[in-house]
Amino acid sequence: MQPTGEPLLELVRVMDRLRSPGGCPWDAEQTHESLVEYLIEESYETVEAIETDDRAALREELGDVLLQVMFHSRIAQEANDQPFSIDDVAQGIVDKLISRHPHVFADVSAESAAHVEANWQAMKAVEKGRTSVTQGIPDAMPALLLGAKLLRRARNGAVEVAVATPEIRQSAEQAIAEVGAEGLGQLLLALIEQSAAQGVDAEAALRAAIREHREAIIAVESASN
Fold first, then answer.
1. Could you report the per-residue pLDDT of 177-190, keeping only the tens digit for each?
2. Is there a domain that residue 192 lies in?
């Protein structure tokens, strides 16, 4: 059965009731800032449901994430400065999806998923006036995700910058070859354990390396312009 969208409209009405006079005192006093922790928590719980392949939990957690989107949109609707509603949010993403999928909605061809992603990033860079592939990557992301995204951006943008020294890269290749894909997680965990034992903050160390790599990428881009 095709979705009708009616439950989404009902959610809009429920959210309006909760935030309106005579509604819920707790909901009425929330702000964008006070809801940040819930947005993060619900996002992580959704990730956990996906990783554990818990379909019932995934359905529930997606609803909780949707609630956060609806909640923030309802708060924004009440703002005196630059208000917007859930309709504006939805229309914005509809417009974005259509404009960034010219291979579906226009006559542009896309040879592969990688080609689609590269085109997406190129269009995004033009829209936002970005001059570097490093722009638009949230520093607040967990370090592993942040590093992976930075490397993927550089690869898709054809910006060639070596990661670490040749000696460190060789050590990494040998270590992964020894443990295989199945042991990679344990290898990373062991590195965290050894780092802590030697008084090194692994998260901080990785973030420092990412910052250095980001600066190297920007330097290469600047030199080529």
1. 999 988 999 999 99
2. yes
